[in-house]
Amino acid sequence: MLHGSTPRADRRRRTVFVWHCGIREDHETLDLEEAERWSELVQCHQGLITPKKSTSGEGFRYGCPNFTFPGVTKLVSTSKVGDAMVGARRWDDPRVLEERDILLGPDAEAAWKRVLDIRARLVEEFLKAWPFVKMAEMSAYGEHSFYRNLGKERPPPHGDDEDTANSLLSSLSSESSEDGEESEEDSDKGFELEGEL
Q1: How many CB atoms lie within 10 A of CB 126?
Q2: Nearest of 47, 62, 71, 67 to residue 3 by alpha carbon
Q3: Which of 61, 74, 88, 185 sits at 20 to 30 Å (Cα–Cα) from 45?
Q4: Rounded distance, CA 69 to CA 153, Å?
């Protein structure tokens, strides 16, 4: 999970944090010129792939996944502004501007009604998509699927999964070091995985 985790979740916690940034008049450059360009981020959102840089323009310190999580599907549009945030529409699209003006305008009642409508559509679409996420995850991971094993004893691992995972993370860390993105001292720290894989 992003931003750290613990072996068990005994209370609600956020593991993915949004980091909004502005886009310049050319509709290509973001607030930080070092960050990826809008067209590159659109490809990431549309292809469900990991960007090469963070919003700050820095590379990812310990590497990033080189594959798309198999249990993934796209939700249909639930908001014009939401579409613009993931590159499905341009920010200068008239319908995006209309919704933006309602959400950020002086009429709080109209803004709140729009927010509630968007949330209701989002929940409805999420509930329709969730069975496909579970089906794809089970198909991809077989007997190691989270959903197949929910409430059951965990199946035996193939080899030493924790050592394999630590080895992979260390190699990603070393690749970052070769690119000059982290110091040798940082690379030596490595990763310690907690909990079950």
Answers
A1: 12
A2: 62
A3: 61
A4: 24
Report the alpha-carbon distance of residue 123 to residue 79 in Å, rounded: 12
Residue 30 has pLDDT above 70, yes or no: yes
pLDDT at 158: 60
Of the pLDDT bands very low, low, confident and very high (cuts 50, 70, 90), residue 189 is: very low
Tokens at 121, concatenated: 């559509």
Residue-wise pLDDT tens digits, 113-135: 999 999 999 999 999 999 999 99
3-class SS of residue 6: coil
- For residues 136 and 69, the answer to whether their CB atoms sit within 8 Å is no
Q: How far apart are the first and last CA of the chain?
A: 12
Distant-in-sequence contacts of 185-189, Cβ < 8 A, 24+ apart: 186/61
Neighbouring-strand partners of residue 53: 59
Q: List Cβ neighbours of 146 (8 Å cut-off, separation of 6 or more).
A: 137
Q: Could you tell me what percent of the chain has a pLDDT over 90?
A: 26
**Predicted structure pTM score:** 0.62
Alpha-helix residue ranges (DSSP H) falling in the chain: 38-47, 80-85, 94-104, 108-141, 161-178, 184-189
Alpha-carbon gap, residue 86 to 47, rounded angstroms: 11
3-state class of 144 per DSSP? helix
Render pLDDT for 42-66 as a digit per residue (tens, 0 to 9): 888 888 888 887 777 777 777 777 7
Residue 59, beta-bridge partner list: 53
